[in-house]
Automatic annotation (TrEMBL):
One Pfam family matching this protein: FA_desaturase
Sequence ranges assigned to domain Fatty acid desaturase in this UniProt record: 48-289
Name listed for the protein in its UniProt record: Fatty acid desaturase
Keywords: Membrane, Transmembrane, Transmembrane helix
An annotated Gene Ontology molecular function: oxidoreductase activity, acting on paired donors, with oxidation of a pair of donors resulting in the reduction of molecular oxygen to two molecules of water
Taxonomic placement: Bacteria, Pseudomonadati, Pseudomonadota, Alphaproteobacteria, Rhodobacterales
One annotated Gene Ontology cellular component of this protein: membrane
GO biological process: lipid biosynthetic process
CDD domains referenced in this protein's UniProt entry, alphabetically: Rhizobitoxine-FADS-like (cd03510)
Length: 311
């Protein structure tokens, strides 16, 4: 049963779950618009500060693309099915070396068995709480590109290992570390390189390296980790949908740099997983109005969520 049905009536859920193609177009256009605008900002005012800002904003929007692919995995990005599949795959997933189909297979298993022994994400969340030193080492590896390079090399090796091996592909679909990665890298790599090449053609030859590859290897890895920690790190290992997942309040800066497209409303997403991301704040209010606000695991900000995880 959808957990939200225990607290919200059918008409409320139906209204919250309504999708529109127009909003899907806006979300995808906004994400790519921020990426293009970040590169343009540096092109107009080239200096170390605008370069750093562009890298951070683009890395955050690469997470944004992952979030929008996640929306498509739940058929919530577009109302029209073929638009949902096309945009989720080729405009959101493939540009960050991800794959909609394999991610959907993995992620729906996570929703079915959240924070239980059958949850494929449990290997990630069960590590928390940990120590501040452990988290610091992880964050340093992310920001210096070590995590990104290791995963990219692992993805390349995996794509060769899985070629034509259906059993190995099925096993890889349950690998939390590679949950959204493209199994057939040869389809995604040209798209990834194409984005970098477009940036270089629009500016200098090194734009693609600085503004697509570098954010992917650094800031994207950091905010992806923070997102994962905030969602299920140091929560109950149980089937209680109000305590085995966390919602984290996010102000304008956090939404711009760490939590784009309402990804911070994760408890609400688990309540009714096909509610579009842009309606999750409304769902948060509906749940509070239902009188369960004090029973929901909610952090006031990402600093608090990380502190619960050991920071």
């Amino acid at each position: 049963m959808t957990p939200g049905k225990a607290y919200l009536d059918t008409d409320t859920i139906r209204a919250l779950a309504a999708r529109t193609d127009a909003m899907g177009v806006w979300l995808v256009a906004h994400c790519w618009g921020v990426i293009a605008g970040s590169v343009a900002l540096f092109a107009v005012w080239p200096n170390p500060l605008t370069a750093l800002l562009a890298i951070v904003l683009i890395g955050s929007r690469q997470l944004g693309l992952a979030i929008l692919m996640h929306e498509a995995a739940h058929n919530a990005l577009f109302k029209t099915r073929w638009l949902n599949e096309f945009a989720g795959e080729w405009l959101c997933g493939r540009p960050i070396l991800a794959e909609l189909g394999s991610y959907r297979h993995y992620h729906l298993t996570h929703h079915r068995y959240t924070q239980t022994d059958k949850d494929p994400d449990l290997v990630l969340s069960s590590k928390f709480p940990t120590t501040r030193d452990s988290l610091r080492r992880k964050f340093i590896r992310d920001l210096t590109g070590q995590t990104g390079l290791r995963q990219l090399v692992g993805q390349i090796v995996m794509s060769f290992r899985l070629a034509g091996d259906d059993d190995a592909i099925e096993a890889a679909n349950q690998d939390a570390a590679q949950a959204f990665k493209a199994r057939d890298l040869w389809k995604s790599l040209p798209v990834f390189i194409g984005v970098a090449l477009a940036m270089s053609l629009a500016g200098e030859w090194w734009y693609g390296l600085l503004f697509w590859l570098l954010p992917y290897l650094t800031w994207f890895q950091l905010v992806l980790r923070i997102r994962n920690i905030a969602e299920h790190g140091a929560t109950e290992q149980s089937d209680n949908p109000l305590q085995n997942v966390r919602t984290t309040h996010a102000g304008p800066v956090a939404r711009a740099l760490v939590a784009p497209y309402w990804v911070n409303y994760h408890l609400e997403h688990h309540m009714v997983m096909h509610v579009p991301c842009w309606r999750l704040p409304r769902m948060h209010k509906a749940l509070r109005d239902a009188g369960i606000g004090d029973r929901m695991r909610v952090s006031p900000n990402y600093g608090h969520a990380l502190a619960e995880a050991g920071w």
